[in-house]
Amino acid sequence: MSPARTRPATALRVRRRLGAFVFLTPGLAYLVVLLLVPLALVLSYVFFQRGRFGGVVYEYTTENFSRLMDPLYLRVLGESLQIAALTTVIALALGYPTAYLIARLPRKWKTVALVAIVLPFWTNFIIRMYAWIILLNGPGLINSALKSLGLGPFDLLYNQGAIVTGLVYSYLPLMVLPLYAAIEKLDPQLREASANLGASGFTTFRKVTLPLTVPGVLTGCLFVFVPSFGNFVIPEMLGGGKSVMVGNLIRTEFLKARDWPFGSALALALVAVLVVLLLAQAWAARRA
Amino acid sequence: MLKIDGITRRFGQVTALDGVSLEIGQGEFFALLGPSGCGKTTLLRIIAGFETPDSGTVTLDGDDLLALPPNRRPISLMFQSYALFPHMTVAKNVAYGLEREKLPREEIRRRVGEVLETVGLSAHGDRRPAQLSGGQRQRVALARSIVKRPRLLLLDEPLSALDKKVRADMQLELKRLQNEVGITFVVVTHDQEEAMSLADRIAVFDSGSVRQVDEPVALYERPRSPFVAGFVGANNTFEGKARAAGLDAGELGELAGTPLDGLEEGAGALLCVRPEKITLREIPEEAAAPAAEPVEPVEPATEPEEKATEPEEPAEDPREAAEESTEDAQDAQDAQDAQEAREAREAAQESAEEPEERAEDAGEGADGPAEGLEGAVLDVSFYGGVSHLSVDVPGHAKPVLVAVQGASAVRPGAKVRLTWDARDAVVIPVP
User: Fold this and answer.
1) Is ipTM over 0.90?
2) What's the CA gap between B221 and B196, in Å, rounded?
3) Is domain A71-287 annotated with CATH 2.40.50.140?
4) Which residues of chain B make contact with A182, given a CB cutoff of 8 A?
5) Which of A194, A197, A212 sits opposite B148 (nearest CB)?
6) Domains, chain B, ranges and CATH?
């Protein structure tokens, strides 16, 4: 209406925005400096040639992209996707029942169970990976146990199976926690209502519980898939360098081959795949 | 139809239900009424199959219900929170139970359409529950419960989530629907008004036991225990010893009332009288001092006050003012006359009924039951249709609550006399 009435409202809006700015700045600054700047660097490297001892020579080229299409690298990318997908599926299969059970525990035991889930994080990651090597290797604990049963020895270490085992082990908590949050949030009366209307336990799960926890499932899958896909420590330690994942490749390109531009191209390819996945997840979550 | 026999359920140290037995008839609208934590919801959950009793049996037309899992019981439960499936449309929600019966799609569609029509939501079938108002959600929940044509419908606090106006509408609708579909309804509620207005019969629960099962009017007028008297509606209670014609309330004297059958004279008892059954009469200031004075029809009680307030506002038309005050006076006069007549009738009745008692009382002077109580008005609150007055009676700890029709002319501080008909007050034993 009159300007006299709109002006204070505008002032209020400006002040509110200013408040938002003050609250957001520290976090945003952190992200800008530590995410966007490196990303911009990587993005710019892609178009230049490699320096002889690392770094870049600022001469324009698109060669790095065409190298990406090399079947050798495409295979690494495909294999990484496959390993990450397998890890995610196994983590979901193990994580959902776990989360479901924890969500239905009495309150006191819920806390205990959740602490137990995150407990491995208290120990250094590398140490835990060494523990897996000790468990899985030739004369390791599992093989000696199997031997006493008259089985084995099996090649448990330095193969894809070992990588997936290590990835599932590492990222299972990231699957369980969002699933737990989603299931816990679910009104238990919805399950009762379903039973009251004549549904069996399985029908209730299929028709009510699962559809309503899809956002949690998607979040959990993303949390597991993303770090699995780009991981390089676990393939290095448990894969024995035999099967190469994108993460290893990028590391090798940057640190060993000293081909920063091509490493950047690989890193961008990884980011692109993840962005596509994130968008797919967001779309699916909105539909759910 | 539904027979509950000796149901007991304990949670650790807490006994939620202690040997509850009830019988509910076909087509009845039955209410389980009690304060929160009295066990009524536990009983409902036992009937629906979400709790298992420690002992006792529940049968529906002779079939053992406890042997069936919840999804095989011919019982629908309408949850307090409605528990509508948020990811399904209204129509899908309603169809859910029919789909579980594996009915043909055509029949499901038809029956869902019918029941949505019944609850007046035909136009909302495609909406999600989140897009509906509270009242509409409640009707979806109801439709989902009755579409399966259960033999018994359980309703857990069906109206508690609705605001006052929608509540009144839904109350009527529930009754209409129950008439229409002829299903036996069992409603759990902590709201005695809800129970009274809806139910054919009410079971009052207190700490895991049934205190009284009765029709609403009987429950209200003839409570059988102090708990029921206090829980169902507002009540004024006086402690004392039972007498044939009421209660000996110690220093308050003898109060008129009707003892419950089988109440022995001299036993510890409680007299309960409803606020709306009490007649309140103002005692003129000068007459207040000699307490035992008979009724003084000389000066209308409202007169002095009227005079005190009038000078504050300029009288526009002195004649009109004068007229008003005489009118008021006339009203008050009428009221008093009526009161007197009533009292005289009461006295006559009592003396006719219990001549001996009367004779004994005569020795104590005019302080007989008919005289009632004297006190000072503490507070007057006007609720539209009725006014509530709280009256401080010396010797009685809690103020006595009196309800009168419309606005009350009595002001706080006024001295009043409270009387009631012996038939309107019930004397019940104190356990």
Assistant:
1) no
2) 12
3) no
4) none
5) A197
6) 2-220 (3.40.50.300), 275-353+370-429 (2.40.50.140)
